Amino acid sequence: MVAAKPKIPARSVPDHVVVDGSNLATEGRSAPSLKQLNEAVLAFMKEYPKTQITVVVDASFGHRIDKKEAAEFSEAIANGELVTPPAGAVGRGDGFVLMIADNNAPIKDISLMQHVDKPICIMLCGVHDQIHLDYIELARKTGGSLLVNGTELRNLQVLRTGSKVKIGRHWFIYQSDGLKRIGS
User: In angstroms, what is the C-alpha Rg of the chain?
Assistant: First the structure.
């Protein structure tokens, strides 16, 4: 009797991936190439068309690419296609912390926020009608930002109760318990 081969499960499709764009753009090269990065990201998107992708590059990335790619780089930053540490980040990307978080759960050790001395960029997953206050406050108090559904929210320190923020196609209002979606 021949034993049946175990069935190999189909590859799971990730909902969201974060890519170290600086490493991809520099692979096999001495200086990064935006063209090389774009080709790699487009190949991934072709294989996983339903997966949201966030590409993070070093703060110095725009200064290290070929000058011919500078305008395209600036456009990619403006369109939210690339994420880079905030201006003034020290030590390339090392002074920048990216936190990937589940919006449906509070930050367990929020009391430690007072000891954080680097800007925290928080990529929130599971955002539908509300953004948890913990994540807003962490980004606000550290001078960081929020990445929500392809939109980067910066300068959160200026939010006041009643402030309105557009995220993607929807408007949210800042209230004492977080950002809540307005209307449908």
Answer: 19
